[in-house]
Structures are given as C-alpha cells and as structure tokens.
Design a protein that fits this description.
single chain; 112 residues; mainly beta; five-stranded mixed beta sheet; two-stranded antiparallel ribbon; 1 helix; globular
C-alpha cells in the first residue's frame, strides 16, 4: 500500500524493503513490486524511491485501466540529484509506463 504523505522528494515512500523481499524469493513469479496507490485530488503527486545499480533496468507501470479506473497519470524517473531520466505523460490507460537503465549507480532514484 502507498503510504501518505509522499508528495515531496523528502517524504517519498521507500520501495527498497519491497524489493529486498522480492529478491529474497527465488520464485520466477516474484519479479515485480506492486504498490496500490490512491489519488486524492486532480493535482495529487505520489513519489517513491529505490536504490539501483548502474545499468539496472527500472520499469514502472500504472495499471489503472486494467481496473477500469480513468486516470491520466504522468510517470517520471529522476536520479538522486534530481535530474530527469525518463518521463511518460502521453496517455491514459494501458500505454502508461516508463523504463530506464541509469548510467551510474544511485542511492536514490525518485519516481513521480
């Protein structure tokens, strides 16, 4: 579950514990972290962090359409310095995803 407040970089929800749990399970079915979020208002922003190594692929997907929830979400991935690495703000629905392999290891990648 998403933990509020997580609308600023300094209170972004850390996903590292979920990733550690996933990596500790050898089952090939356990290859993703699912966060159930809640949009409180049209201008609500939810931010999450995770640590990555250089070249590690990070893929983020919003699954609102699969649950027939109309949501025009914007996804963005920032490095630990706040530099934008990738963004997808194109559409509502099934095409709302973004992925990126950071060039350098980062203790903090911010997902907005």
């Amino acid at each position: 579950m998403e933990l509020e407040p997580n609308d600023q970089a300094d209170n972004a929800q850390d996903l590292s514990p979920f990733l550690a749990e996933m990596e500790g399970d050898a089952s090939p079915r356990n290859d993703r972290v699912v966060v159930i979020g809640d949009i409180h208002s049209p201008d609500d922003v939810d931010q999450f962090t995770l640590s990555v190594t250089a070249g590690e692929k990070v893929a983020i997907d919003v699954d609102a359409a699969e649950f027939q929830i109309p949501l025009e979400a914007k996804l963005a991935i920032f490095d630990g310095n706040g530099e934008l690495l990738a963004v997808n703000a194109t559409a509502m629905g099934r095409a709302n995803n973004v992925s990126k392999s950071p060039a350098h290891a980062a203790p903090l990648v911010r997902i907005v």
